[in-house]
Amino acid sequence: xxxxxxxxxxxxxxxxxxxxxxxxxxxxxxxxxxxxxxxxxxxxxxxxxxxxxxx
Amino acid sequence: xxxxxxxxxxxxxxxxxxxxxxxxxxxxxxxxxxxxxxxxxxxxxxxxxxxxxxxxxxxxxxxxxxxxxxxxxxxxxxxxxxxxxxxxxxxxxxxxxxxxxxxxxxxxxxxxxxxxxxxxxxxxxxxxxxxxxxxxxxxxxxxxxxxxxxxxxxxxxxxxxxxxxxxxxxxxxxxxxxxxxxxxxxxxxxxxxxxxxxxxxxxxxxxxxxxxxxxxxxxxxxxxxxxxxxxxxxxxxxxxxxxxxxxxxxxxxxxxxxxxxxxxxxxxxxxxxxxxxxxxxxxxxxxxxxxxxxxxxxxxxxxxxxxxxxxxxxxxxxxxxxxxxxxxxxxxxxxxxxxxxxxxxxxxxxxxxxxxxxxxxxxxxxxxxxxxxxxxxxxxxxxxxxxxxxxxxxxxxxxxxxxxxxxxxxxxxxxxxxxxxxxxxxxxxxxxxxxxxxxxxxxxxxxxxxxxxxxxxxxxxxxxxxxxxxxxxxxxxxxxxxxxxxxxxxxxxxxxxxxxxxxxxxxxxxxxxxxxxxxxxxxxxxxxxxxxxxxxxxxxxxxxxxxxx
Lengths: 55, 549
Fold this sequence. Notes:
The structure holds 2 protein chains of 2 kinds. Chain A has helices spanning 8-33, 47-54. Chain A is mostly helical.
């Protein structure tokens, strides 16, 4: 049986764990390479004031 | 004083000094409520990922679940897969980025505040805050008990002194430095945990001759597998369980789904997404988070299962044979006298050198302290920002009321730690995970992704999920129902389904986690009620959505 395991399911989950970890590593590294840039997000400077205006 | 004890004390002092220094740095940088509640929304990828991971993984995840893996074997690795894929990748890339964008648009400072403002409902914010403030200390109590027991065994400190001393040490930096202090110390503690677990894995495989020989030896040991577990449906450590048998349902619904999916709705973890300084930093954090979790639960489960081979090939269990005391081969649970919580500590004590034993215990301190500090902070903000300011006396000095909330959370955690036995508290931990999933997850997910979700849908889903999860745990799910004893007192039964014929589906429901029942029902309630009730004001929903393209 694969990897010395007693069932296909256990060999599969062992490999899936390693692949998931490597996938996360590679995904993150892709963003290491790109230059850090500010977000296109707007914060609410005074949420309660905005809320009063909206109402 | 022996050299070994001196080495332990010196290393412990160095560890405490570094922790206090990082706590002091957090305090120096904490000026306003945003710093205390959200670490100034300026954290980088490494600190955020390590803080998320170290908060996620407590001592029980390594020692308790590692011991459980010595019984259930590699089937627990499904939890590791879910921890990485759902708990890190899906959580960071999909939920995290969206929660951060909406959190900024609504100027939300806590997890309940994000939900409350998304639905324009102070009730939801207060209800979520109260649920967290009441039930989080029970979960924290479990972690605190583990930490105090560890100190008692490792340094010979009195258990009650350890309980109070640990609470005081963590209180010092959480109350003063807020989330900045918590996250800086988490990053240091997480790094220590990573190094310890990496060495633990390499050493174990090296001891057993490599990866495949170690697995093959465990596969060949199947004849020694406990008969009681075989009867309940397990086949072996590397063979898994019979599908839909009672033990399969316990492993896959409680351990794998309950904890694997439940992590998405943990308030002390979700708030981390709102602390990071940019979306790009959050995506960078995926690499640190994924490898960290693989090295935590992945290593604990693999090593836990392999302790059976270690104790079989290097006997430590002593038995009297023909009047002579001999060391005989035995599986891990037999070596630990039936107490699975002792398996990992016994493996460390009998098979590893003293220097690693000391490092491992420090790693476990780090795991417990990083989880506890986040729980104290989340409990404090839930009381101060979400409950007190919404329901009691209106707006106050957020920093002051949150610090009072942290102090109250620490006090309640200490009381749980003093009053309840460890077995009850471990059950309460699973209960908290289930409660968070069914109460918060549908409301959070639909709130982030569906403009048509209404306030009425969210209120019905959160209250309904809370009630269904609580009632199911009290009356149907065997683990909580038997421990609490209310069903026995009212109906004379262990659970309401105990009287059905054994192995029938109604009878098997006592092994199905409340998450699997309550969360889908809460999700259906949210969708149906939202479709039947008036939509929220379009201008308001546009405001919630203004950071989404």
